[in-house]
């Protein structure tokens, strides 16, 4: 093997002369020399969208700032999101290289997909705590108020809402030339760009621990939305025959930019359990790690340098609330992610299954139980293709649910030892009515006090549950681990006149039916009550009329109230 020698100025000059000669030759002879076997390499790095699907974003209200005197642009976004603006369709940019050598090139930032609070970027930069978008077409990007925020905890006051509006210190735009002026190496000295690569796929979560420490808000809202958006952004496929697998790219790291090591973990421990089980190779960084990255790129006496993130899903709770679906309709940040992808037709029916199955396999759930939803769907699909079903078959449980009687599992999560629970007599009457019902039909009943069971025991029960019921509370989050069958249902008991979107929205997003119970009255889509928290909502005297609950369950299993 020869010994390499350093390049001299003469070597560099010859390289440039050779490249110029090749460019002249191909430019002059190119039109005459093309043939069907030609290999054409397009090395252009553009901005805007890179997906090969339509991308719909609201037009922004900013121009490119100039940063000749400072690395952070002086752009100031509007204090509130634009109202009543039409969306425009940006034509996708194609033929963008999958990998760019950032040593000598500063690739422009592109958006793969965007919805309020959810954005998948290619080539995003961070220096001194500011996210930078490098682009020659800043007007093709959404206003940053729909992308990010200052990351402060949310309070429902005008002052706090204003304090969470992002500025150029949170996200700024650079032209390619401005980026080269800041981070580019000296070509004459053969210097590389001052960019340090963070390769692979990264989730950056720009919200404080305020909601992340809650099982529902972390798993059934943030993770639920992040996985939906990631799957949809790459038009991922999940095959029913192998529903644990997805064609979406793997996720390599998650960065909780505003939460410390305890700031994304809930008290019972389900957040970390589910996150680690679903993504066993994932690297997690938290506030201290993000601060390390900020400090490393903030020394005013050192040459300016930045982190280059290859592919990023940036999520932001405050930005999601700027969207009409979350902000005005559901108050669920995941709704912006899932509804956007459904409108594009890029969210497969089984999109959640890879996460669900990863967690349940880790918890020791057997393959037959994991397949309950897929098998029930297959039975119903086959039955729909068969003509002339007899009356007896049409009346059976399997004819309406795709499940046999022994696979119908009713799980009642009792909160009698918690601060929000049923009247004691009503609880006892409900348990007795449920026991009588399952005995009559040959179904299974689980009356669960979650705090007395291990995580594995709770997840194993959820994995086979057909009907999940209980008073409004955190235990109903286990609905995300239920099999989605034609009759899967969540029954949520409220103090009369009370209602919240939490489990109602998540149930419907998974394709399940949700019922709200006010004592002896039930409500379901499209006749849900309005959100309200009356006196008694959090109390210990919540009434329920057991025959109404039994009626809802029996009618649902019989095929009434279809989704």
Automatic annotation (TrEMBL):
Keywords of this entry? Glycoprotein, Glycosyltransferase, Membrane, Transferase, Transmembrane, Transmembrane helix
Please tell me where this protein is predominantly located. Answer: membrane
Q: Name one GO molecular function term.
A: protein O-acetylglucosaminyltransferase activity
Q: Where is the composition biased (Basic and acidic residues)?
A: 60-72
Annotated GO biological processes are:
protein O-linked glycosylation via mannose
Annotated localization: Membrane
Pfam families per UniProt: Glyco_transf_61
User: Taking every annotated instance into account, which residue ranges of this chain make up the domain Glycosyltransferase 61 catalytic?
Assistant: 406-483
Region named Disordered = 54-88
How does this chain sit within the bilayer?
A: Single-pass membrane protein
Can you name a GO cellular component term? endoplasmic reticulum
InterPro entries to which the protein is assigned, alphabetical: Glyco_transf_61_cat, Glycosyltransferase_61
Tagged with keyword Transit peptide: no
Q: What is this protein called?
A: Glycosyltransferase 61 catalytic domain-containing protein
